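Listing S7. Sequence submitted for prediction.
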Amino acid sequence: MKNILITGALGQLGSEIALALRAIYSNQNVVLVDIRNDINKQLIIDGPFYISDCRDREKIIQIVKKHNIDTIIHLAAILSARGEMDPPHAWDININGLTTILEIAKEFNCSLFTPSSIGAFGSSTPKDNTPQVTIQRPSSIYGITKVAGELLCDYYYNKYNVDTRGVRFPGLISYLTPPGGGTTDYAIEIFYEALRNKRYVCPIQADTYMDMLYISDAVQAVIDLMNADPNKLKHRNAYNITAMSFSPRMIANEIKKHIPEFEIVYEIDPVKQRIADSWPNKLDDSEAREQWGYNPVYDLEKMVYDMLDKISRRLCCA
């Protein structure tokens, strides 16, 4: 990676990846694209930024040419819970946007990272130690687009030799940017409510397990995969990765160790609960560990401590 373009760059994951890559490759060599410019103002000021839809082929091509882009990190997408509100729009953004970026990567010989998700699995997938290769029959439009995206990336690699790479992210936990409409958003919201109000109304049932990953481990996974020896990548796209599997009750109990008066109550969102119930409890990420050295740092205890520390600092300064 030398000159990098990030689509969806001001979102939860994009913001963190942009900061990390600009620290490594310099501000001017990491170009950001998003459809909005009203968040993360410092990222916009610090380096090249463009407002563009990821489906706008001509605009993206202009940016790729101008900055001599060799790597695209394509993060623009509609997430799980929001996707259920408008399935045709989710398909349009997630699939037609990806196809546009794949075509550009093919034309300009760019490496391409595209994230898949735990949402690519369904209720018929093995729940525990979910294998790298297994049945995928998701019930959400988001999951359907992720399975299709995995196959598209495989197709462009096999047919056109596009250097496509990707991981299946579990729920991502971060503090820099608000979550973007995913089923696992509760695991971020709970920290803000614990610090502000000492109480959180959770939309997911108390004992529903889902895989999670702290944002710093997610960012490092992207960097490590894109820098990995291509000859060692057996799957290339959609590697299972995870770090911790927990339920709302478990994270609430961990928060109570730091905020004893905190309480959690439950008002279940049926859409989010249905999606959560269809996902695995725990992924098997041994292929990622063996093939490109995936090795997360944060478990539940370390993540909760760091999130409470970081968010309390932000709230004090707000």
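Caption to Listing S7: primary sequence and predicted structure tokens for the chain studied. The longest strand covers residues 30-34. Residues 87-108 form the longest helix (22 residues).
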